Model the fold of this input.
Amino acid sequence: MARRCEMCGKGPIYGNNISHANNHTRRRWNPNIQQMRVKTAGGSKRMRVCTRCLRSGKVQKPSV
Done:
């Protein structure tokens, strides 16, 4: 599964773990992606969106 938000396009960020002995190993930080139903113009569909988009109100849940 691609760790990418379908609303804003946010994806993983890469960097280094740095130990106390100053050893560097590569790692990645994944965004907090949630799969949910989103209201769209044609109805509702499942999307993978980050929690930043959920909190900011960029996506709306469909009404029941």
User: Anything to note?
Assistant: The chain has a mean pLDDT of 92. The chain has one domain: 1-64. Residues 51-56 form the longest helix (6 residues).
